[in-house]
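[retry 2/3] TDG/mug DNA glycosylase family protein: previous attempt timed out, resubmitting with same input.
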Amino acid sequence: MGAGVALWALPNPSGLNAHETASTLAQKWREVWAAIGAPPASLRG
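[retry 2/3] TDG/mug DNA glycosylase family protein: success.
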């Protein structure tokens, strides 16, 4: 991996990560999308 490259490791919604809720997973994905400059879901086709 080169310098300046972001790596995101997000939990998999499996039994091993049962403590993660849909809300916490959604928040983590929103952080990834914000970091890469993706538009909000409401603006995506």
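[retry 2/3] TDG/mug DNA glycosylase family protein: The radius of gyration is 13 Å.
[retry 2/3] clearing retry counter.
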